[in-house]
Structure formats: C-alpha cells, structure tokens
C-alpha cells in the first residue's frame, strides 16, 4: 500500500539536477508515498518551498576549491561522490531506523541521482533497494553505457580526422558529439563514466527517466539490452506531468520580460539562454551580441552574473550596436527569466539554447524550434538528437562569428528552413502532450513505478 511507505531521495547538488528530483518527489507524494529528501549542505534545496516533504541535511566535508565557481566540473563530481558516500550512508541508516521503530513510515526504497554512483553502492550496503533517476536523456545514458564498447571497437579515443564520422554503436552520434568537458582531463571523464556504468550494473534495481517513449523509444530499447535486469520507467516530461509552477533557485526571474513579450507579434522573438552553468569568453559574447544586433530579429537574452569569464558579479557591457537595439525596444536583456512562461508565450518563435536536457524538454513541450550551442557533457548528445534525429533545431556551425550568428538566427526565424523545423516541433509537442494525458505512456509508467516501489 503506497500510503504506508516512505521513499528516500538524494538529488545531486546542481540546480538542473535538483529540480527534476523534486518534481519526481511531488509526483510520488501525490500518489500517497511519504518523501524524505537527504541533501548536501552545498547547494541545498530550499525546504521552505516544499513544506509537504521532509528534508534531512547531511554534513559533508568537501575539499578546498570543489565548490568554487569555475571549478573543473569532472573533478567536482568525482570529489562530491568521494566526500558524500559516508555521510549519505549514515543519513540513510538514520531514516531507515526511524521507520523501523515506528516514528516514520517504513522505507520502501531510495531514489538517487544517476551521477551519485557512490550513493548507489552505499544504499546497497545499507540494504535498501536503490533506483537511479537520470536527469539527462536516455540517449545520454546509452552513450555512457557504450563507452567500453567504443574503446574495445577502436572508436575511442577519437582521432581528429574522424571526429565527424557517425559511430555505429551510438548512431546518430559522431565522435565530436560524445560526452566531454572542455578543460577536463579526458581520462578523468572516462573514469567518471566508468564509475557510473559500474554502479548502474551492480547496485541499481531500476532506473527512472525524465523522457517519454514517443521521442526516445529506440534508445530505451538499447538500454534494455545493456541493462536487462533493471526495471525501467520513462515518466517524462515530468514538469508537464506534474503541471507545477517553475522552480527558481538560481536568481530571481525578471517577470517584466513576459510583459515585454505581450507587445510583440506571434513567433517573432528569439529567446537566448545558455543555462545556469555554461560560461563563455568575452570574444564569443561580443560575436553573439553583434550577430543578434545584425539579424534584425527581436530577442530576449538571459545574461546571468558570471556568464562571461572574468566578470563575476556584474553584467558585461554590451557592444554599442546591441545597446541601440535594446534601447529602441527590439531587444531585452535580463539576468534570469521564468523560462517555461517565456517558452509558452506566443511571441516566442525560437530558442537559442545550450541543450541542457531540462531546457530541451521544455522547448519540445512548447513546440519551440531551437538553435543549438552545446557547451559540455550531455549537451552535445542532446544537440545532435535535436538537429539530426528529431529535426526540431539547427546547428550554429563550427565557425562562430557575428555573420554566422546573423545567418543562423534569420534562417530559423524568417526562412523557409525555419518554417519546416517549426512544423516538426509542433508535431513533437503534440506527442509530448499525449504522453502525459490520462492513460498516456508516461502516466501509466508513473503508476507502474509506484507499484514497483512498494513491492520491496
């Protein structure tokens, strides 16, 4: 019986990971499960926003520099796993004991973020069934699980002369689309992926995906062959299944930008946001700005603090041509935007995105075509699927300058190619909507997930 059991959840402490974990927590709570969130003190979720959930903070001790802005992302993830394994194990044991003595409902299972490979192992040691929540795409997990195969087949390491060749084990991905983090050591990236792979195969009982079958059915089938003993649940898009308001944990959103959109024609505005983590140098920033100014297309651009390297706490100055565009009202710059509301606005005709999975799903759900500028990690996988598998976006190209930016923006927003992409995006939006309707595939999957959880 769902109402008699408790599920423990452990989000990875990045904003793009915390939000989907809390979405899943609310979906499970609505189906009668009690929820406890174990969390790090680093980037802790805001418990006050979720009074119906129970929050248990850990007291991890992180090495110096791990939490610094601009820290090596791969080293950060490896260090977080090493530092949090023991505190998580103890926190989980504490929650289990409270259930055993009757102070709380008995623990059914634990759901940990898929990047917490150490926590998956720790949960098994405590004797609690563990499921992994993948906050990225099924295609990304398939890519990670394929790395050892890619090495044994001689596809890795990628050679410069073959980086544009499609790799058969992970088609449609090319060498350049594989997971990597610029500035991080390739061997350390491979080590992290190998640890995730091993934990999934040895310690997880199941895996939950924030995706839907209509968009990633082939990838889900491939994962079934790679992980045949794991239970699998595709329950996305979770934000649409939940119908919940957007979480804003990084910056307070400028809601004035939505009012600004009201005055603009349908499908006329390009929304530009490269997410909550990516950073670019001043030269690239200027080329983006000058390309936008030269396109003649109205735009809404999110420029958060720290977005441009070397400028930590204030917005960079805009090149003069862009300043004039903003002054005359054809463009607007904000430090943060209510992204779901923006993407749902009829004035939005395109989304220039880093292709983080949350942003990709949100764009798909609103039928907004994309210009892709992946920065690192799984974003490169997502970008390839957006452009070459689903056909709902286009690449900027390898050359990045103001002329290429202007051409890409105009091609998407006012060209015939953009119209064709927009029609594909409209059809994909319909499939996303169908997945979360009554008896839709994702609605059925979340009910199956609850039944599976209380079976332990």
Provide a descriptive summary of the structure in words:
There is one protein chain. The protein has 456 residues and is α/β, with parallel strands linked by helices. The chain has two domains: 2-246 and 435-453, Rossmann fold (3-Layer(aba) Sandwich), CATH 3.40.50.2000; 256-433, 3-Layer(aba) Sandwich (Rossmann fold). Helices cover 45% and strands 14% of the residues. The chain has 17 helices and 13 strands. The chain has helices at 15-30, 73-100, 117-126, 138-145, 147-152, 186-202, 213-226, 238-242, 256-262, 282-295, 320-327, 339-344, 357-365, 379-389, 402-414, 416-436, 441-453; strands at 5-10, 34-39, 54-57, 106-113, 130-134, 206-209, 231-234, 269-273, 299-302, 331-334, 348-353, 370-372, 393-395. The strands form two sheets. A seven-stranded parallel β-sheet has the order 3-2-1-4-5-6-7, sandwiched between helices. A six-stranded parallel β-sheet has the order 10-9-8-11-12-13, sandwiched between helices. The termini are close together.
């Amino acid at each position: 019986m769902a109402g008699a059991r408790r599920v423990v959840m452990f989000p990875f402490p990045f904003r793009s990971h915390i939000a989907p974990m809390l979405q899943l927590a609310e979906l499970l709570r609505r189906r009668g499960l009690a929820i406890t969130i174990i969390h790090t003190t680093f980037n802790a979720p805001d418990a006050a926003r979720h009074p119906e959930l129970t929050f248990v903070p850990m007291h991890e001790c992180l090495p110096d520099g791990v939490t610094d802005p601009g820290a090596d992302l791969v080293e950060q993830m490896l260090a977080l796993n090493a530092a949090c394994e023991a505190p998580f194990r103890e926190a989980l044991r504490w929650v289990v004991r409270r259930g055993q003595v009757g102070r709380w409902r008995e623990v059914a299972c634990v759901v940990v973020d898929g990047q917490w490979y150490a926590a998956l192992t720790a949960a098994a040691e405590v004797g609690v069934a563990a499921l992994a929540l993948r906050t990225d795409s099924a295609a990304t997990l398939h890519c990670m699980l394929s790395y050892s195969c890619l090495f044994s087949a001689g596809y890795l390491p990628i050679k410069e002369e073959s980086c544009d060749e499609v790799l058969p084990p992970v088609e449609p991905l090319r060498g350049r689309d594989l997971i990597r983090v610029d500035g991080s050591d390739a061997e350390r990236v491979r080590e992290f992926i190998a640890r995730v792979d091993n934990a999934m195969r040895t310690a997880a009982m199941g895996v939950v995906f924030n995706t839907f079958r209509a968009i990633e059915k082939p990838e889900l089938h491939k994962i079934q062959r790679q992980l045949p003993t794991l239970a699998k649940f595709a329950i996305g898009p979770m934000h649409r299944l939940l119908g919940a308001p957007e979480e804003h944990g990084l910056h307070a959103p400028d809601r004035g930008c939505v009012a600004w959109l009201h005055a603009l024609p349908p499908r006329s505005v390009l929304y530009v946001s490269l997410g909550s983590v990516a950073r670019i140098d001043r030269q690239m920033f200027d080329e983006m700005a000058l390309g936008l100014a030269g396109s003649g297309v109205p735009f809404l651009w999110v420029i958060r603090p720290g977005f441009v390297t070397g400028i930590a706490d204030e917005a960079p100055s805009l090149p003069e041509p862009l300043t004039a565009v903003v002054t005359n009202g054809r463009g607007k710059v904000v430090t943060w935007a209510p992204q779901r509301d923006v993407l749902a606005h009829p004035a939005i005709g395109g989304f220039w995105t880093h292709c983080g999975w949350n942003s990709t799903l949100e764009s798909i759900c609103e039928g907004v075509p994309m210009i892709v500028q992946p920065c690192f990690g799984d974003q490169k996988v997502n970008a390839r699927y957006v452009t070459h598998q689903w056909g709902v976006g286009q690449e900027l190209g390898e050359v990045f300058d103001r002329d290429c930016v202007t051409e890409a923006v105009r091609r998407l927003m006012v060209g015939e190619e953009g119209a064709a992409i927009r029609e594909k995006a409209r059809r994909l939006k319909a499939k996303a909507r169908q997945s979360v309707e009554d008896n839709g595939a994702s609605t059925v999957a979340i009910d199956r997930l609850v039944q599976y959880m209380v079976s332990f």
